[in-house]
Structure formats: C-alpha cells, structure tokens
Amino acid sequence: MTATLSPEKYDEVTEALKDVMDPELGINVVDLGLIYDLGWDDENDALVIHMTLTSAGCPLTDVLEEQTAQALDEVVERFRINWVWMPPWGPERITDDGRDMMRALGFAI
C-alpha cells in the first residue's frame, strides 16, 4: 500500500525527476507528463513512481530506470517504478514548459 508524500518531499522528488530525459525527445519526463503519481511504500520503505511512456512498446525502460536512479541518488534510498499503461499517455499531459521545449525542437504543439 502506498502513502502520500509530504508536499516538500513531492516537490523535491519532482524537481529531481526533471533530470530524467526521454531518450528520443530530450525533454524531461515530468514536463512530458509521463509521471502519473508519486507515493511512498511504507512496507518496503521506498518511493513508488507511477510512470508511463509515450508508447507502450518503447524499448527504453532500462535507460529511464538508470537515469531515475541517478537523479534520485541524493533524494531517496530506494524507489521502484510502476509502469502504467492506463490511461494511455497523450499530448494533453504535457506541461506548458514541456510544450515550450517541444516547440523549440520544431514540434507543432
């Protein structure tokens, strides 16, 4: 069972996850809207990241897990990613900052 993170810890984790870049787009997973939820697993004393990908067939989960481990190294001792496929990711989840980044790359969004 997961518990809610404190607002301070939530902000700290979210800020750290902005260092995790989608390998194909070069935009962070937070601003792409790939993070669905963050929670705390009291039983295993670990952060739980509910995360998706832009497509279910993306072969880059290992790359994202490695980047996540590096980004969270000073923030939490343990984490796990719960890959979520429902609801499917869509461009409506991209933040305003993410949209600006995509436009800078030439995407019409």
Key words describing this protein structure:
alpha+beta, GMP Synthetase, Chain A, domain 3, four-stranded mixed sheet, globular, FSCA_dom_sf, 3 helices, 109 residues
Walkthrough of the structure:
This protein is of the alpha+beta class and 109 residues long. It has one domain (2-101): GMP Synthetase, Chain A, domain 3, CATH 3.30.300. 28% of the residues lie in helices and 18% in strands. The protein contains three helices and four strands, in the order E-H-E-E-H-E-H. It has helices at residues 7-17, 61-71, 96-104, and strands spanning 2-3, 35-41, 46-51, 79-83. Strands 1-2-3-4 form a four-stranded mixed β-sheet, with no helix packed on it. Helix 2 links the parallel strand 3 (46-51) and strand 4. The longest helix is centred in the first third of the chain and has 11 residues, at 7-17. The mean pLDDT is 93. It comes from Microbacterium aurum. This is MIP18 family-like domain-containing protein. Residues 11-75 form the MIP18 family-like domain. InterPro entries: Fe-S_Maturation_MIP18, FSCA_dom_sf, MIP18-like.
